[in-house]
Amino acid sequence: MHAFARLAVVAIAAVSLAACGNRNEVGSVGVDWTGNDISIEAVADPDVDGVVCHLAFFNRSFIDRVSQGNWFEDPSYSALDCSIVGPVTVGDIATRAGGEEIFQQGRSLIWKSLRVTRIYDAANNSLIYLAHARQVQQGSGKMSLSVVPLNGADVTWDNGAPTAQPMQGSVMVQ
């Protein structure tokens, strides 16, 4: 009887978590009869006004979780596209090569998360947004990339624009 009680508690917890709505979700597309969905969220860059990213990712259904036996994990696959939606105001952003994380969402109970990292490309005056999974045990090569060019856009830098740096190791075409 204890095993049945544990299964019931886990099932209730999974259904409760699945029922929680996301205020950033702009759409959801059903992909099969078991209730699996592709969710699309709008992710605003907290330090760059006027740029929004749309992130699509897979949400497993209750039926899929029961049939696969893996209750607490969603796949890491994602797609990302970012664009300018108004005048751009760039706040205090990291300009180092590793960039900075602007979004994180758990894809399993503890081990895996989906993240969006912003990197500033000074040589090309562009913001690069990288969606990627982070797994503690095995890592992940699943990623998606979007580039927002700032040349020709209405851009204001709160702390002054960084100086452009020539690309190293390649020829810049003008």
TrEMBL record:
GO CC annotations, alphabetized: cytosol
Keywords recorded for this protein, A-Z: Signal
Signal peptide range: 1-18
Source superkingdom: Bacteria
Name of this chain's protein: CreA protein
Lineage: Bacteria, Pseudomonadati, Pseudomonadota, Alphaproteobacteria, Hyphomicrobiales
